[in-house]
Amino acid sequence: MTHAARSGDSRFEPERGATLERVFRTEHGRILATLLARTRDFELCEEALQDAFARALERWPRDGEPDRPAAWLATVALHRLVDLERARARREQGRMELDDLDPDDLDADDVDSTARNSPDSDPGAEFPHADERLRLIFTCCHPALAHEAQVALTLNTLCGLTSAEIARAFLVEDATMAQRLVRAKRKIHDAGIPYRVPPASELGERLAAVLAVVYLVFNEGHAAARGTELVRADLCAEALRLARLLVELMPDEPEAEGLLALLLLTDARRAARLSTAGELVRLEDQDRALWDRAAIAEGRAVLARALARGRAGALVVQAALAAEHARAARASDTDWARIVALYDALLALVPSPVVALNRAVALAERSGPAAGLAELEPLARAGELERYPYFHAARADFLRRLGRGAEARAGYARAHALTANERERAFLARRLRELADA
To answer: Which one of 241, 325, 365, 407 is at 20 to 30 Å from 296 when CA atoms are compared?
Structure first.
């Protein structure tokens, strides 16, 4: 999407600009996946979708917002894609036969009324009913692409995350991630990678990447990388939906069940994560009466099935960690020794600096902030988490609890500078004020 379409237009009334931003956030992946069902050319599909949003910026303030904004955008984008395909065909081959929708059947000026008045005007009814988003994930996670490129490409196309936002998640430079995305999209097109859910015999080689992608989609919904809202409920719901589909697709795969259990147990805490004033509430301070007990019960049941298969991978272990938190009626009831042991198991499976950071946080709860701080020193020397705000926030918290206020302030300030989500920035700013007043 163009910058203007992402950030609004000066001619746009605020509420209409907000609607377009909301539709972009919730429907970008769905519409793009539908366009990609027609052609594997990511650049062409993205151009068509960008043009549709640009048209909305021009037309909605003048003509009024359509009754079904997502359907309007999907219709315009599909017509634009057909136009772009024809133009490219004329350039490359002189002519090209298109066997689907003919844009001449519907003049562009009539798109508003068609999308507004048709009873079937939504992308799911306008286009093929197959789950295009699941096809998109499996296409992006083709083994011909490097694992990081698979995950990054899906976050970009399905969630609409920018290369800069994805770069922060991968702890790499923005330009590096942008290049990876361009190369991955071209490879899918040039190699003729099929746009489909692969047969059962090929699922295994894509499983790790697909599960990782769905988990990262959920993470972006659970703690949005940018914006004014902490939670993007649309992405949480989408990740849960996809996780359920994956369990149906691979009913004997414990890691698919582990993913679903993890998402259910984590999302169960959503209602308690913000105060009535809209401030971030840390896990230990949450009102556990607000936790979704039905989701917790379902998550535990799914986890039990995964554990019974006897092949506990990283997602099953993470679901077990979430279940431990869910078992505690009060924060003081948390079995931190058990949680540290589970992090030991997870670190053996996934020896990453982020897992090591989370283990240090658990260790600080079990053995005190000095123990947690000691665990962070090797991570600080390695420098891999230098651009990761949660590292600096955790270290600052240990220092604050140890009475080392000046060092804690520096850590919170660094975390604040690296954080783009306004709710998280407000929490860190509050910590800084508390230290200044102490």
So the answer is: 365
pLDDT at residue 11 above 60?
Answer: no
Rounded to 10°, the helix 200-222/132-140 angle is 100
Measure the CA–CA gap between 359 and 372, rounded to whole angstroms.
Answer: 8
User: DSSP strand E in 370-431: where?
Assistant: 420-421
- Neighbouring C-beta atoms of residue 87, cutoff 10 Å: 12
- pLDDT band for 94, please (50, 70, 90 cuts): low
**Position of tokens 């998109």?**
136
User: Measuring CA to CA, how many Å separate 61 from each of 12, 65, 109?
Assistant: 6, 7, 15
How far does the chain reach from its first CA to its final CA, in angstroms?
46
Beta bridge partners of 226: 420
pTM as predicted: 0.73
Helix, strand, or coil (residue 226): strand
66 contacts 75 by C-beta, under 8 angstroms: no
Two structure tokens written together for 200: 């059962």
Rounded Cα distance, 340 and 184, in Å: 38
Which residues touch 161 (CB under 8 Å, ≥6 apart)? 155, 220, 225
Q: Whose structure tokens read 């697909």?
A: 210
Q: Where are the beta strands (DSSP E) in 205-349?
A: 226-227
Residue 207 CB coordination number (10 Å): 17
